[in-house]
Specification:
binds iron/sulfur cluster, 114 residues, Alpha-Beta Plaits, 5 strands, three-stranded antiparallel beta sheet, single chain, alpha+beta
Length: 114
């Protein structure tokens, strides 16, 4: 008969890193300094929406076996980015942010005008 007091073998812990949860943010800036795309890799679930909506082929999925779905988005060609923001608006996980100097200036000007 099994002894209830026998300790069960421990399951190997799932590390935050292997689950894709460890904080891991990368930012890429265009050569003219105008545009920065930031990927919060720990939020990216590899759904590909951003890469599909990008009209300029800036984003590509790359293999990442340690992540949720085994893929993650990467910035491949920031020089082509027109800062349309589609990727940021469409990402369901707030994993991608686009910052563009001119757009930010325009926003500030609008606010100042009221
Ligand atoms: S839409 Fe968001 S979650 Fe999906 S691949 Fe792109 S960055 Fe990752
Ligand atoms: S801002 Fe527009 S062009 Fe730039 S990466 Fe996102 S979807 Fe592509």
């Amino acid at each position: 008969m099994a002894d209830n007091n026998t300790p069960k073998p421990d399951k190997p812990p799932i590390s935050e890193e292997s689950a894709g949860l460890a904080e891991d943010t990368v930012g890429i800036t265009s050569s003219d300094g105008q545009t920065t795309i930031t990927i919060h890799r720990h939020f990216c679930k590899g759904c590909e929406i951003c890469a599909e909506v990008c009209p300029k082929d800036v984003l590509k999925m790359v293999v990442a076996p340690d992540r949720w779905e085994g893929t993650i988005v990467e910035v491949m060609n920031i020089e082509n980015c027109n800062a349309c923001m589609l990727c940021e608006y469409q990402c369901p996980d707030f994993a991608i942010e686009v910052f563009n100097v001119k757009k930010e200036q325009k926003k500030k000007e609008k606010k100042a005008v009221g």
